[in-house]
From TrEMBL, chain A:
Highest taxon in the source lineage: Eukaryota
Cited Pfam families: TTL (PF03133)
Record-linked InterPro entries: TTL/TTLL_fam (IPR004344)
PROSITE patterns found in the cross-reference section: TTL (PS51221)
Keywords: ATP-binding, Ligase, Nucleotide-binding
Similarity remark: Belongs to the tubulin--tyrosine ligase family.
GO cellular component: ciliary basal body
Organism encoding this protein: Oncorhynchus kisutch (Coho salmon)
UniProt record, GO biological process: microtubule cytoskeleton organization
Gene Ontology MF term list: ATP binding; tubulin binding; tubulin-glutamic acid ligase activity
Keyword ATP-binding belongs to the record: yes
Gene: TTLL9
Protein name (database record): Tubulin--tyrosine ligase-like protein 9
TrEMBL record, chain B:
Domain Rab-GAP TBC stretches: 251-472
Region (Disordered) location: 508-530
Cross-referenced SUPFAM superfamilies: Ypt/Rab-GAP domain of gyp1p
Pfam families linked to this entry: RabGAP-TBC (PF00566)
Name of protein: TBC1 domain family, member 19
Lineage, broadest ranks: Eukaryota, Metazoa, Chordata, Craniata, Vertebrata
Name of the gene: TBC1D19
Length: 441, 530
């Protein structure tokens, strides 16, 4: 493979490039998916697909491949792969809740109640069947409440149901508890043969637009857990349920589940009809309705969800320097404009539902690859790459330059722009050098 | 000719007359009476003190806003000998064309009525009334069979009418020359030329700060935005209509727009407004109108399919069905060249006492009509407030986009303005398009009729409508249309047919012009004005 010479080049901040001689002009990639990512990889200058057992520099794999092969693969220093080995600590509902609860306890002990309350962005959740008794206690404390049952490991809304009466879940008592006696290996416990569920307090007062419930899909890229480095993408979308919200029909899963995959099977689903709004559209709508300050505060709360959830698994995730991961966060707003974390996806859908969606996902993936930076074009000091803003870099990242002069000022704004204008093309032109071998246009 | 003094007194008299009948009048009267108990009101200086009180408590401002509103909508008092139709439209040939067009529309409506066997209006049976009341907030879930209904007309039908307009007093026997008009509109109306527009739209010059343009500005956008927002908050606090209108010329901040527009339009949400809306709603529940089906169909075909507005489907029914029944809208026909269609009770055709205006508000919706309401759903979600703002927007601006008149904000003028701008500044392009049978107006007409709703992203559209309100004119719609062509000039020079020309300019299905297009459009608007 050819190495790209960077001798003498001073990056945008006047520093010598960090990874001199590290960039590659020819990247061999493996890709286990057949959707947008395929197109993006194929079109990237200097990137070549390798088939079967060929040696690769970059792997966009699915979690199945990871599970089977990661532990047996030797990766050279420059190699990159798109998942962390034990990402499920964040993305499996029961593990995420466990990690968050533990983190919250630590926070309360070390920093007090108020600080710990910043973790109260997930609804009361109990793992079943292991926490069944705790769950029943909580259930009885709030009579008439609605709960949602979600299988731990499934996606796309499968197996989810709502209930208001205990008798709806009496069966769960009969299921053999798994993993609690410690006799199974870590591995086996993760790969639960018996399906386990979480029971979660259902949010009965979701924020509605024109009578319709929606949730938010946001993209967060993590390139390292220790130290924690996370990027937030400006684009995202709001997914609307195709029918009006009402608590009287909890059996109608089409009303409550906003997942596009579920909506697609609803009887009056019209694929031509949009059921998504771009994040920018949503942000503008909310701002027009509630005012700039209120919505800025809302988005700050949303930022908090990302940071805290990542911090809660920081010590648990195996921080392999070869790994990066693009998460799809699902957030729900309630009528008080409080954001709630519903779930984190390690393999957010990259299939496009429309031309617009396709373009957004292409840009998202291109920018992801820019940040992974196989070509060695970045200095590592960037606060923004395309549509991504650096949200956390072993500490909060601010829009303003923090130096001796500004240190005294109390006014720092977070470097996040979710739902703001994404003029990525312009920014990339100014930021990146052309690909190796190509002249600047 | 009247002298200025007489004109002024007449205007004042008219406004006083109109305001006497309003709720505001009785409110102010009551306030004036009640304030007599206050300690600061002295008998010796009664008039002065009451006046001061009304000023301090904000009532004077409300009155000012109401007067300001009247000045907007009332036609200028004309010569005492002028007949009332001159207030609607001074030019006879235009009036005639409008009358003929209306005859055609009515004929189309009546024949649909006969063909389908559906009455123009029908009282709903009790069961149906109850059902509708329950379903009021989700009328969109209804899927009535609308296949038999067709829109009464579409913008392109109306375009044909405009193309065939001729002034009988105009001698068009001259040979076609470079000086003659290349476009489709062949009436000699006076439009403002570029230097005049530059002066009139001075706030849009590149040296003034704007919301909505990020490139090529002389004023750094961040700096401008925070200062402009600060001023906007003040304007809203002061509750001053005139100030809000002036302010809107530079664009409204997203968080303040709803309040600012309501202020400019003097659109209130007092109990009597809410009550009025509820009465209209009751009207919808009791009677079913044929036009209701046209509304349903239009919403389903346009707004429901739009990426931005599909969510607001239910609001659109709630507004448009009530709008059809609002007889208060009939007032605007005194300055609209159109006349509401009249129907006669069976057997009494021609007998005025048995004439009924149909629909009750006199406005027959056409294909795309619901798009006038859709963008407003972004700003207001209380139905009565949304309704109030829409109605005012309609009686001030939108009606001009689908009636034949000589008004400078009328669609005829806009079309002419568009064609003239193109011919003056992009003659090569215009000539080329003409040669391939792709008259630019055929592409741009539908944008202008809808004031770009559905052809621009919501944020871009709202910035455009900021300026319509700010300048109290639709002229800017024509300028933007020309700017879009200017922006795509290079591509358009390559096309060889009308269809490929349509494709080359952003299509409605794509959702909108990209922000870059509109930024440049806006900015080449001023550029064109430069």
């Amino acid at each position: 493979s050819l190495f790209y010479q960077t001798a003498g080049y001073k990056g945008p901040y006047g520093y010598q490039k960090r990874r001199e001689g590290d960039g590659r002009s020819c990247v061999r990639y493996k890709c286990g998916l057949t959707n947008t990512i395929q197109d993006v990889l194929r079109q990237r200058p200097g990137w070549m697909e390798v088939k079967d057992d060929g040696e690769w520099d970059f792997n966009w794999c699915d979690v199945g491949w990871l599970r089977e092969n990661f532990d047996h693969s030797y990766m050279e220093e420059h190699v990159r792969i798109c998942h962390f080995r034990n990402h499920y600590e964040l993305t499996r509902k029961n593990l995420m809740v466990k990690n968050l609860k533990r983190y919250r306890k630590t926070l309360e002990r070390e920093a007090g109640r108020i600080e710990a309350s910043k973790c109260d962005f997930f609804p009361r959740t109990f793992e079943l069947p292991s926490e069944y008794h705790l769950f029943v206690e909580e259930f009885k404390r709030s009579p008439g409440s609605t709960w949602i049952m979600k299988p731990v490991a499934r996606s796309q809304g499968k197996g989810i149901f709502l209930f208001q009466k205990l008798k709806d879940i009496m069966d769960w008592k009969k299921v053999t508890p798994c993993g609690n006696d410690g006799s199974r290996s870590e591995e086996q416990r993760d790969e639960t043969q018996v399906e386990s569920y979480v029971a979660q307090r259902y949010i009965e007062n979701p924020y509605l637009i024109s009578g319709r419930k929606f949730d938010l899909r946001v993209y967060v890229l993590v390139t390292s857990y220790i130290p924690l480095k996370a990027w937030l993408y400006r684009d995202g979308f709001a997914r609307f349920s195709s029918t009006r919200f009402s608590l009287t029909s909890i059996d109608d899963q089409y009303v409550h589940l906003t997942n596009v995959a579920v909506q697609k099977t609803a009887p009056d689903y019209d694929p031509e009809k949009g059921c998504k709004w771009q994040m920018q559209q949503l942000r503008r709508y909310l701002t027009a309705r509630h005012g700039t300050e209120t919505i800025e505060a809302l988005f700050k709360d949303v930022d908090n969800i990302f940071v805290r959830s990542l911090q809660s698994v920081q010590k648990v995730i195996i921080n392999d320097k070869h790994c990066f991961e693009l998460y799809g966060y699902d957030i729900l707003l309630d009528q008080d404009l409080k954001p709630w974390l519903i779930e984190v996806n390690a393999s957010p859908s990259l299939t496009a539902s429309s031309q617009e969606d396709y373009e957004m996902k292409c840009c998202l993936l291109e920018d992801t690859l820019h940040i992974v930076d196989m070509e060695g074009r970045l200095t590592g000091r960037e606060k923004r790459v395309g549509g991504y803003d650096l949200m956390w870099n072993d500490g909060p990242v601010y829009r303003e330059d923090v130096n001796l002069e500004t240190l005294g000022s109390a006014c720092f704004t977070a470097n996040t722009h979710l739902g703001c204008v994404n003029d990525r093309k312009k920014q990339l032109r100014q930021l990146l050098k052309p690909f190796p071998g190509k002249k600047r246009i | 000719m009247m002298d200025e003094g007489t004109e002024l007194s007449l205007t004042i008299a008219q406004i006083v007359q109109r305001l006497k009948a309003t709720h505001l009048h009785s409110q102010i009267e009551r306030q004036a009476k009640e304030c007599l108990h206050r300690p600061e009101i002295q008998l010796e200086s009664l008039k002065e003190d009451v006046r001061n009180f009304l000023k301090a408590s904000g009532w004077e401002r409300k009155l000012q806003n109401a007067v300001y509103r009247e000045l907007h909508v009332q036609p200028l008092p004309s010569h005492p000998a002028a007949p009332p139709e001159h207030a609607k439209e001074p030019l006879a040939y235009m009036r005639k064309a409008q009358v003929n067009w209306e005859k055609r529309i009515l004929k189309s409506l009546n024949s649909m009525c006969t063909e389908l066997g559906v009455p123009l209006a029908r009282k709903r049976p009790a069961v149906e009334q109850k059902e509708l009341t329950n379903k009021w907030n989700e009328m969109g879930t209804d899927e009535p069979d609308l296949s038999r209904f067709r829109p009464v007309y579409a913008p392109k039908d109306f375009l044909e009418v405009l193309i065939s307009l001729r002034n009988p007093n105009h001698d068009s026997s001259e040979e076609a020359s470079a000086k003659s008009h290349w476009g489709l509109i062949q009436v000699p109306l006076h439009d403002r030329d570029i230097p005049q527009m530059r002066e009139a739209y001075s706030e849009l010059s590149l040296t003034t700060g704007q919301l909505g343009i990020d490139d090529h500005t002389h004023v750094p956008p961040d700096l401008f935005e925070s200062e402009h927002t600060r001023i906007g908050k003040k304007v809203v606090n002061e509750q001053d209509s005139a100030a809000a209108q002036q302010y809107s010329r530079q664009g409204c901040p997203t968080g303040l727009r709803a309040d600012l527009w309501a202020l400019i339009l003097n659109s209130t949400n007092e109990p009597e407004d809410v009550m009025h809306y509820e009465q209209l709603k009751a009207g919808v529940i009791h009677h079913d109108l044929l036009v209701d089906n046209l509304i349903y169909k239009d919403v389903k075909l346009t707004a429901s399919n739009d990426d931005y507005y599909f969510v607001f489907e239910d609001f659109l029914y709630q507004v448009l069905l009530c709008f059809s029944r609002d007889t208060a809208v009939l007032e605007h026909f005194s300055y609209n060249s159109a006349t509401p269609p009249k129907s006669y009770i069976q057997g009494k055709v021609g007998v005025e006492e048995f004439a009924v205006v149909y629909p009750p508000n006199g406005v027959i919706p056409f294909h795309g009509f619901s798009m006038y309401v859709a963008p407003l759903c972004f700003l207001y979600n209380e139905p009565s407030k949304l309704y109030s703002v829409f109605r005012e927007m309609y009686v001030r601006y939108f009606f001009r986009l689908h009636s034949v008149s000589s008004s400078t904000s009328g669609i005829v003028s806009l079309c002419l303005q568009f064609e003239r701008l193109l011919q003056t500044h992009l003659p090569q392009l215009f000539y080329h398009l003409r040669e391939i049978g792709a008259q630019p107006l055929r592409i741009a007409f539908k944008w202008m009729v809808r004031a770009f709703s559905g052809y621009l992203s919501t944020d871009q559209l709202l910035l455009l409508w900021d300026r319509i309100l700010g300048y109290d004119s639709l002229e800017i719609v024509a300028v933007l249309a020309a700017a879009v062509f200017a922006f795509r000039a290079e591509n358009l020079m390559e096309v060889t047919s009308l269809t490929s020309a349509e494709v080359s300019v952003p299509r409605p299905q794509a959702g909108r012009l990209s922000p870059t297009h509109t930024h440049t459009g806006f900015h080449s608007g001023p550029w064109l004005l430069k």
